[in-house]
Amino acid sequence: MKTEITSAFIKRYRSVVRDVMLPFQWRVLNDEADITIARERKNDAGIPTEKSHALENFRIAAGRTEGEFYGMVFQDSDVYKWLEAAAYCLMQGDDPALKKKTEYVVDLIADAQEDDGYLDTFFTIKEPKHKYKRLVESHELYCAGHFMEAAVAYYEATGNQKVIETAKKLADHIYDCFGPEEGKIHGYDGHEEVEIGLLRMYHLIGEEKYLKLAEYFLLERGRHPGFFLDQVKKDDMTPVFPGMEYAPATYFQDHVPFVEAEAAAGHAVRQMYLCTAMADLAATTGNEEVKAACERLWKDITNRQMYITGGVGATVNGESFTFDYDLPNDTMYCETCAAVAMVFFSRQMLRMEDSADYADVMERSFYNCALAGMALDGEHFFYVNPLEVDPEKSDKDPGKSHVKPVRPSWLGCACCPPNLARLIASIDEYVYMVKGRDVYVNLYMASSMSDGVIRVIQETDYPYSGSIKLRVVNDGADARVALRIPGWCEKYTISAPYELKNGYAFVKCPNGETRITLDLEMKPERNYANAKVSEDAGLTAVSYGPLVYCLEGVDNGKYLHDLLLPSEEEIKTHREDDLPGGVVTLTADGIREDSPDGALYSRKKKTRTLQELKWVPYFSWGNRGENEMRVWVRES
Amino acid sequence: MKTEITSAFIKRYRSVVRDVMLPFQWRVLNDEADITIARERKNDAGIPTEKSHALENFRIAAGRTEGEFYGMVFQDSDVYKWLEAAAYCLMQGDDPALKKKTEYVVDLIADAQEDDGYLDTFFTIKEPKHKYKRLVESHELYCAGHFMEAAVAYYEATGNQKVIETAKKLADHIYDCFGPEEGKIHGYDGHEEVEIGLLRMYHLIGEEKYLKLAEYFLLERGRHPGFFLDQVKKDDMTPVFPGMEYAPATYFQDHVPFVEAEAAAGHAVRQMYLCTAMADLAATTGNEEVKAACERLWKDITNRQMYITGGVGATVNGESFTFDYDLPNDTMYCETCAAVAMVFFSRQMLRMEDSADYADVMERSFYNCALAGMALDGEHFFYVNPLEVDPEKSDKDPGKSHVKPVRPSWLGCACCPPNLARLIASIDEYVYMVKGRDVYVNLYMASSMSDGVIRVIQETDYPYSGSIKLRVVNDGADARVALRIPGWCEKYTISAPYELKNGYAFVKCPNGETRITLDLEMKPERNYANAKVSEDAGLTAVSYGPLVYCLEGVDNGKYLHDLLLPSEEEIKTHREDDLPGGVVTLTADGIREDSPDGALYSRKKKTRTLQELKWVPYFSWGNRGENEMRVWVRES
User: Fold this and answer.
1) Which residues of B have a catalytic role annotated?
2) Is the Cβ–Cβ distance between A442 and A456 less than 8 Å?
3) Nearest to residue B21, comparing CAs of B309, B581, B407?
4) Cβ contact, residue pair B600, A393, below 8 Å
5) What ipTM was predicted for this assembly?
């Protein structure tokens, strides 16, 4: 299947990724960008912030230069994610300058690989005696997984043999070191990811042992209590993250085998990568027990632990999931990487079951939490995506220092920017899905797809309009197009007869051309959180189509908590040109409360004056300087 | 002036202190109580929790037994605060068993004192080479201050000479070690307190050098930047609190001289002890610059940084003040000790200026935040006094693990219980104030006072009734009684002519007997926070007289955030016998919101059903098992 994106909205993002973000990241990875690297939170002195040094680490490991390793233990993964994003860009069209950089990187990685296939610059340069001996914190397999993902993407984009040979050599080496057989290590990485990479390698090459190894890592997890601690106790390396071996087992999803898990737990990105790999495994092998666990965790997350923006991870402590209905808006983590991984997980679930629920969450996480991770300029990034910010609190409350009111240019732990880049660059892979003779339209986005027999041309101004025109050209036998009816849409019309199933409208498309018009009623909507969510009591979040909206100080003044949206007031839409490609903003006649006097506590009720409220899409917040922001707004 | 409390409400507390709390604390201090010592927060492994060991430390230092020091570096202060509370109890009446214990303690302390007057069991036993060399963390002068306070109280209660000689020897030793003179240490303790003790010694004995030393510590503070760090750098002792020397100078109120401070900052208890001592200094010496600074900080705290319960310290990070209008209800510290110190500070301010504002805050902090620090049984204590608790969040959110839903029996850092004990045991000293021929009634509380010439007999059921009957018997020349008109009271009647000034109604009392009836209209009231307080937007706190009220789960069910008090609904009062001595509870017809379905996010508005709401006094919360609690309630 080949997909081409024509959406102006998405094309702008993709050109930002190609023309701004990747060159910018390239300069960062080469320590050539004039940037200040931000700490995730105050007093977190453990995070290296002088430079990236990521490519220099490879040059040192490759023996091309001399020097010391610098950066996070998983610094290599920044390079791999950059390469993966670059690969998707190359799929979209020639770019000789980019191609040259990627070839340099591929050669460099191959040179940095050791003869036996081992690949990790931290351990090659700094701690060669401790390979695979501290998996709780080493991130060796995590980095390997990212390289495998990049290698698969780069091979698919360019046919480059070297990258896939390097990845195979690495995967073979890992296979030789890990597994149930005697003499191998009976354990797994502290941070899931290699499982995703191994499965992608398997899908590309068909090599059974990669599937077997992924399955080993996935199904063994949670069955070796004490493995991480035992390793560290036997090893005398200076810790990378002192004490990490004492983190609760939930942090690593090591507290219970996945098939027995009832709820998402621990570090959110790890949990989501695990879910993604598990869903892939279940879709690939048909393992019903794993599938059931995936569905269980899906429900737990989306019904009880997910923000309305599609973000996950309710606490900065361990960047973790917490518990049912615990969704604080101003102290959470909601890491960009976790939202990106929600999109990955959704897609794998869709492979197993054509339920529009999965595509709804994919859309929610992509258009809201994930896209918010990048500034409109493509050079500034959020790690944490709050639903409520007050710059003074971020500045002065140590408990909120991780919640930034504007995007820093680069982060000491730089996992998010390249993760988002690879998602945006490969978003075409998420729009359509072909199962037999059914073409599913999971995301609405001006685009065209072809699987060689059937072509779909989609015209729409989505996400700002719900009007979608499809032209289906079928060169084969009877087929169907399955149009997702988004969960946010209550009224819609389809110009052709259709059959509704699992949230999809199936329209028959016989041989020849079929034209279908889908009109999704798109209007400003008020959303209410479950009554068990204490943080959202009395509040409403406004949305328009798939987009969640927010108030910002620049439009609404200070003290956004004093603004109220009257219960029955109409919310109006406006097309504005503030953002490149235009944007739909929302307004309503609202109320501002104020104190009758300067007293801290008063018997007098607050005064109320009229004030127009203005919302902008959540993904676009924080692009006009430091100011307050609020998704959940008081309703009167 | 001699005051006797007859109030049933207060007498019950005082008998709990005498009959339960002091014996219980005695057993704890002797490691004889069968208790679990709680950690302030999760993963705070630095806090010793096996036992108290406080008296054993003294026995070891005194050479009576052998062993190692155990406990916090300031463990001695637990003994001193116990002794001080015991002294106040002895003032109220004979108690041979208690007297015997106190005499044992006084002898033991004297034995533990070194020949040169030095007194601190941690350093005597464990680190004798490092005395006064790590004032950032040593708490040596802090402990000394508590001993001086105890010594003054015990001397006043019993006339015991030994205790005051021991205290003088200690104060003289400190005077010889600290001061502006060459060869002395030019610095001060990381934790203010010795200044209060020295001033009390000065008030008792009239020794000028104690005043001079207190003044030195107070006025020098903030003028020796780097003092704490320099000391630690020159010293090789194993740190007590590793890294404390790098805490921001605000933490110790060392960022600026007090007379230049614009706002309260840093560790709240330290700040309040500093304010208390400063106000005492200004009242004692007439220093106008210090007085102005006290007034400035008073206004800053009470107008912008104080909870409606009279608690202070908005963040657990550094147990600190934060910034204007930052008053989160569920993550704050609001330490019992800090509320107790608000009462101290208020009293010192009253000495300088007869403004009812000071007495209002004294009353607010005492009846709400401070009293809440102790369970009704006298054997369980809060350190942190939240305005909102959900036991599940305290249990599962590491950012809220310091917020306990029920009082533990003892805390590893046990400063609060004895601090509250000494306040309750000495509350008679706060009720009346004599200035010239004016007798101020600062607190309403059934009681009688006499200064030898004038007697006041106060009859009232306050805080549950606003009806107060005063009989004034004046054996001297014309006098006045100044009746405080509480800030919470909007309507009142006085049976005699009066002149109003600074919130006091002055009633003339010529020679002979004068009977005055004061009727303060006491009814349930709604309070609103300033519009700048984001955490209280849309919420109301209900009060009745001086008491702040709260909802508890045991009365109102789960999810207190879903309960609303209609805007105009009447709140009814009920006299109940649930608490010893009775209690006034409040009810109103309210509303419970619920979700129309189980969805996490829904377009449907929440359903509303009627539910009676029931409030109990804040001081009494958490006495009926673990449940939710909420002071600020949604208003519709």
Assistant:
1) 319, 415
2) no
3) B407
4) no
5) 0.94
